[in-house]
Amino acid sequence: MNSKVDLHMHSKASDGSDWIPGLLRKIQKLGIRTFALTDHDTIKGVQRMEKIVPDGIRFIRGIELSCKTEVAKCHILGYNYDLKQKEFLDFVAEAYGV
User: Of 60, 54, 48, whose CA–CA distance to 13 is shortest?
Assistant: First the structure.
């Protein structure tokens, strides 16, 4: 079985080029069957995408968290988190103001 997958994409909720409806149209046009939306430091795009992604396309919640230490900057990707998990939502809101 051939299936197109993209596990790292961004919307205009962070630094992507498309708002959620336009991004979903591109995903469908490209024939992507499984994808993760991994906007930088926000879950706003994920919350919107969940409302409109159609049956037949697997959507995985993602986020790309910006991290910084004294010696380096990095991004950490997180997947398949629970939007009802208060601790996670509180962490994102406190750390990134969303």
Answer: 48
